[in-house]
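Q: Got a minute? One more chain.
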Amino acid sequence: MDVSTVEFQLPSLALDGGFDGLRLEVEERCGAGRIPLRFASVRTTPTGFVCEVEAITDPPAQVQEFPSIFQFRQRSGARGGSFNAVMIIPTGVDCAIGGHAGDATPAAKVLGAVCDTLVLHPNVVNASDINEQPANALYVEGSLICRLMMGSIGLRTVRRNRVLLVTEARDDGDKVLDQVVNCVSGARATLGLDCPRVVVLAEGLEMQMAYATSGRATGRIGKLEGLVELLVSQRDRYDAVALATRITSEMDSVELNLAYYHGEGANPWGGVEAALTHALSTVLDVPTAHAPTLCHLGLLTAEFGQAEPRKAAEAISETFLFCVLKGLHNAPRVIPPRDFHQPGELHAEDLDVLVTPDGCIGLPVLAALVQGMTVIAVTENTNLMRNDLDRLPWAPGQLIRVRSYFEAAGVLAAMKAGVDLTALDRPMALTRVELT
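A: Always. Here it is, folded:
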């Protein structure tokens, strides 16, 4: 059971009548025995869409059914009432805002201030020992956001979860394991975290970071069978899963961290982490999040100097784990979809708008397009993706481009107040009159 990346070009994103056409195209390109986990168009060209897909091979026998990421339920319309937004910062694409270590948190706080609920994923707010997500935010793993917007699941808010922590045995002493346990103990003593136990895998995962042709961070994952078998067998003993495991690189670990803290480029670990949590949340229907443990003890004594501010949260941490524990502490649980309202639940019908960096096309953007949700694309949040969103068949006014998250917050405030955006334009257009 491995996870790896497949690259190909599609002439179009076939979305007529839903996602069946796109599913068939992607599954054919991935090949027999590979199940798509994470879909992204990385570049539009005159002849189509260049795509990169993380795919899993040979799911273990314990997994009776692996839901398609393209499973889709057309929502019955926007429900109204509360005003709810989704904020995404795609992982591993070097977003200027949010592509590093929780540095989209200030933007999330601003957006959260003008909506009733802000749905976001760990990449937006995870900052090693820091997680300052807004009080009205829901911390939702990326694949679960996709499925929520696709209408194939719903979410139910909770006060707390039983968070299972899974880490791995090391052959370089007890230092890393001790610090992982200390982080959990600290979260129990201060956050009130319910962590029934820490499970140590005798045989750890093989997680190796890599970069796709587009420059997007990705990677390869091997030896997943033991972890999946454990989690499936103990499914009734936890509500969420935190993972703390090593990610390796062909580059010297100290040099890699030094280059990242002081240079440009995508967070090198985020892509393979996203592939892992997509796989586990899809199989288990539970919130999951991953923190990388130190791949080499030499990182404990290395001198990194004063890191670039967006990355500084990682430079001060040993475990990178507390943000995950805080997020999962009360992350919403997965429930079956329904088109009628229940208090404390969120379904596709309850979502009003998606806020995304401009140029990014993944399942959240495509789901919003087909479900008729407004999409706000922030042009200032530059990234490695080179898609022209105008190539998609938007309804008039469905795609709104703004320069900054300040401007995005203004659009959200207008939408929540029921104000037509053109009413704020000057000069104001004349009222249109038609004779019949």
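A: The mean pLDDT is 94.
Q: Perfect, thanks.
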